[in-house]
Specification:
325 residues, mainly alpha, single chain, Ribonucleotide Reductase, subunit A
Length: 325
């Protein structure tokens, strides 16, 4: 379905400010961190000592927490899917080099470092069945995902706002948990990735805020539609060798819940934070349909709270094929 003229006009209006937005929310390549800044230097005389220390700390990590770290890495590694999806959004010029395509490419370039860093860490850790992890990554890229946004920029920016906050939460929690056990290097890796995700979340929230100023009713309806469908995590299609889509994500989600890395309460908290950040309750000039959409959105956190109280997380750990020992 093609966008209305108003949607295209909104995208073109925001694009006029893209130079400032790129400068505000992204970091020049030469000034940015790179994976090699945080990993043992293979040309250094201390390389093997550093790897030995890295492996000793990795072996001490809680099983569920380590499995979540691997799942987060696989999610980050499926970047080709995310770039292709954003490049298909109406208003983004795939073939040219308009402001929106510049954003997508620059955002992708920053995100690409996350999977690179974590993949190399896990390889050095000696605790991962790398082939099984790589099989899951290939499956996730091959199978793609359906997040219910179509090519609509309004829905896509709602999704990215939510998802970037969620990945920030997950990486930040892993950083906090491993730091408590003395694994300061991994804590720094996850912490610096979390900081990127937080910065990217601020950008996508800014896109939504600008659209709310220009086309409030349609943006409100897009927000309502996405929350009625529920935000589907990128790892939803993740699977192992011989697995079925959906089964492994449940185990991955349970592990994250057990370790309090990402929980149903976090989903609710993110939803509430977006309502607050976008001042949803104060937006004026809405159509009747958009007003009803706002009513639904404002009541949703409390409704989800009641539902979350009935969720029971299995205590038994699942044996992931990714974890080698």
């Amino acid at each position: 379905m093609k966008l209305t003229n108003i949607r295209l006009e909104v995208m073109q209006t925001i694009e006029k400010s893209m130079g400032d937005l790129l400068e505000k929310y992204l970091i020049p390549v030469e000034e940015n961190w790179q994976p090699s800044d945080l990993l043992p230097d293979s040309s250094s005389d201390s390389f093997f000592d550093e790897v030995e220390e890295l492996q000793a700390l990795a072996k001490e990590m809680d099983y569920d927490l380590f499995a979540v770290l691997i799942g987060d890495t696989i999610t980050e590694e499926a970047l080709p899917t995310y770039e292709a999806w954003l490049m298909s959004v109406e208003g983004v010029d795939q073939e040219g080099n308009n402001g929106w395509s510049q954003w997508v490419r620059a955002w992708t370039a920053e995100e690409n470092r996350h999977g690179d860093l974590l993949n190399k860490y896990l390889y050095l850790s000696g605790r991962v069945n790398m082939r099984e992890m790589e099989v899951s990554t290939q499956h996730l890229i091959k199978d793609g995902f359906d997040i219910g946004t179509g090519h609509d920029p309004y829905k896509n920016f709602i999704y990215t706002s939510f998802q970037e906050i969620a990945t920030n939460v997950s990486h930040r929690r892993v950083a906090s948990l491993v730091k408590k056990t003395g694994n300061t290097k991994l804590a720094k890796m996850c912490g610096i990735i979390a900081a990127d995700e937080a910065r990217h979340a601020r950008a996508y929230k800014e896109f939504v805020r600008l659209i709310l100023e220009l086309d409030p009713s349609e943006m409100m309806l897009a927000f309502e539609d996405m929350m009625r469908k529920k935000i589907v995590m990128p790892a939803h299609f993740i699977k192992e060798t011989g697995g079925v889509i959906g089964d492994l994500f449940k185990h991955f989600s349970d592990a994250a819940q057990r370790k309090m890395v990402y929980t149903s309460q976090d989903y609710i908290d993110i939803m509430q934070s977006l309502l607050n950040d976008w001042n949803i309750d104060k937006i004026t000039g809405l159509t009747d349909a958009a007003e009803k959409g706002r009513d639904y959105l404002m009541a949703l956190p409390a409704r989800l709270e009641r539902i979350s109280q009935r969720i029971v997380v299995p205590e038994k750990q699942y044996e992931f094929k990714w974890v080698g020992m």
